[in-house]
Design goal:
One of its GO terms (molecular function) is leucine-tRNA ligase activity. One of its GO terms (cellular component) is cytosol. It comes from Chlamydia trachomatis. Keywords: Aminoacyl-tRNA synthetase, ATP-binding, Ligase, Nucleotide-binding, Protein biosynthesis. The protein is of the alpha+beta class and 173 residues long. The protein has three domains: 61 residues, no CATH class; 40 residues, no CATH class; 44 residues, no CATH class. It has three helices and six strands; from the N terminus they run ββαββαββα. The radius of gyration is 25 Å and the shape is elongated.
C-alpha cells in the first residue's frame, strides 16, 4: 500500500451550513484530471480518504449508517438524519440554492471512445495551427480527417509519434 503524502496549508474553508472551519490539505492522491482537482475528504466513507486521515490523525465522522441512511448530520435549521443518500443530496441542493449558498452543477463525463491508447501516436484532431499562433477547426468539407498510411510505427527515441515523420500531413501550409 502506497503511503499518502500531504501537507496542511494553514488555511481553512468555512462550511456553508455549520460554519465550522474545515482544514485545507494538499494531497498526492487527488486526481487532477477528475472534476475540479479538489475534493472534500469523507474518510468514514472513502478508503483513500480514510488512509489519508489515519496517516495525519484527522477526525473520521460517519455520516451514513450501513443501510445508507444519514446519521450525525444535523445542525440548526438543517436536518439530514434519517434521509437516504439520494434524499439527502436533493435536500442539500435545495437548501444551498434557497439560501443562495450554491447551486447544482452537472459534471459531464464525456469520453469519446475513439480517443484511446490504441492510437498511441496521437489522435488526428481536426484543428489547423498557424504560424502566427492562431488556429481554426477544419471546415465540414475538409472532414473526415483521416491519418495517413504509415509503414513504420516504431518509436525513434526522440519523444515523437509516427505522425511527426509524415511532414506533408502535419504541415499543411
Amino acid at each position: 500500500m502506497k503511503t499518502k503524502s500531504g501537507v496542511f496549508t494553514g488555511s481553512y474553508a468555512k462550511h456553508p451550513v455549520t460554519h465550522k472551519l474545515i482544514p485545507i490539505w494538499i494531497a498526492d492522491y487527488v486526481l487532477m484530471g477528475f472534476g475540479s482537482g479538489a475534493v472534500m475528504g469523507v474518510p468514514a466513507h472513502d478508503e483513500r480518504d480514510l488512509l489519508f486521515a489515519e496517516q495525519f490523525n484527522l477526525p473520521v465522522v460517519s455520516v451514513l449508517n450501513k443501510e445508507g441512511v444519514c446519521i450525525n448530520s444535523c445542525c440548526e435549521g438543517f436536518h439530514l438524519d434519517g434521509l437516504s443518500g439520494e434524499e439527502a443530496k436533493q435536500y442539500v441542493i435545495n437548501f444551498l440554492e434557497e439560501n443562495h449558498l450554491g447551486a447544482a452543477k452537472i459534471a459531464y463525463k464525456l469520453r469519446d471512445w475513439l480517443f484511446s491508447r490504441q492510437r498511441y501516436w496521437g489522435e488526428p484532431i481536426p484543428i489547423i495551427h498557424f504560424e502566427d499562433g492562431s488556429c481554426r477547426p477544419l471546415r465540414d468539407y475538409e472532414l473526415p480527417l483521416l491519418p495517413p498510411e504509415i509503414q513504420d510505427y516504431r518509436p525513434e527515441g526522440v519523444g515523437q509519434g509516427p505522425l511527426a515523420k509524415v511532414r506533408e500531413w502535419v504541415q499543411v501550409f
